[in-house]
Specification:
By secondary structure, the chain is mainly alpha-helical. The protein is 71% helix and 0% strand.
Length: 282
């Protein structure tokens, strides 16, 4: 005779270990929600999927003209366009990732109203939009590097162990997104103020992170302060790993990892205690 699978539905258990067990149990839903976020990104737009290559081009284009051509910001022997594309790929992963993480509960209210879902799963899946954009950045960087290889006879990107260092930088940016998202997704579900505040904070944060400029032009007395910015470490790791430029200060990497760990642990406790109230307010 056929044996049917029996699934026992139990009341929710308190505590973080249970949250992670739930995330593992429901892991097959991550691709589904990842596609939902990507669809929401491009739905109701005239250009649709064309926005995928257009966004990085528009993000970088104006800045290259202003900071590269007009202000002649140094870029450590690498064409400014490549320097900026590489830095922006890491920053956009963080900035865009945090936007989607903040909206992760709010955007899925129709699902949350019908079925039980671990809210952590919605937060984890939300990075998918920016992973797709990161892939697009990689394609554009490859094309631009190819163009300069023909023009200058120099391949400006390092294809070697440095890729692992760059990967570590990208993973740290994602870690910071998830750590902060544990707080912002709860507040973002309750009011739009969180989103508006975040836009202003990120606009300021961008300029104190060495994306548009190398850290070498920052006056010596401000470098320690800049190293404490939790996005300095990831951006510098990516630039150093892919281009061999910049300086990876141990303080910057330590500060970033310590921030991710501290905010992440505090965020998990906060998220676990607040998520139900956040969903009730949807």
């Amino acid at each position: 005779h056929m044996s049917a699978t029996v699934r026992v539905i139990e009341p929710r258990h308190p505590g973080l270990p249970h949250r992670f067990r739930e995330l593992w149990t429901y892991r097959r839903l991550i691709p589904f929600f990842s596609k939902q976020y990507i669809r929401k990104r491009y739905i109701n737009t005239y250009l649709g999927w064309w926005w995928l290559p257009l966004r990085p081009v528009l993000e970088v284009g104006a800045r290259v003209l202003l900071f590269g051509a007009l202000l002649k910001v140094p870029s450590e022997g690498v064409p400014y366009l490549i320097f900026l594309l590489v830095g922006m790929s890491c920053w956009q992963l963080f900035q865009g990732g945090l936007y989607w993480a903040t909206r992760s509960t709010e955007l899925n209210k129709r699902f949350l109203g019908k079925i039980y879902l671990p809210r952590l799963l919605l937060l984890v899946s939300s990075i998918s939009v920016e992973l797709l954009e990161l892939f697009m950045f990689a394609v554009i960087i490859a094309l631009v590097v190819g163009f300069y290889a023909i023009l200058d006879g120099v391949v400006y990107v390092q294809l070697g162990p440095g890729l692992l260092i760059a990967l570590a930088g990208y993973l740290m940016a994602i870690g910071l997104v998830w750590a902060l998202g544990l707080f912002t997704s709860v507040y973002g579900a309750q009011s739009r103020d969180m989103r508006f505040a975040l836009t202003r904070i990120l606009a300021f944060w961008f300029f104190i992170t060495p994306v548009l400029y190398p850290i070498s032009i920052v006056p010596e007395q401000f470098r320690t302060l800049m190293a404490l910015n939790p996005m300095t470490g990831p951006v510098e790791l990516v630039k150093w790993g892919l281009l061999g430029v910049g300086e990876v200060q141990p303080l910057a990497v330590t500060a970033s990892l310590a921030t991710i760990a501290t905010i992440g642990v505090a965020g998990l406790f906060f998220f676990a205690s607040s998520e139900a109230a956040a969903v009730d307010n949807l």
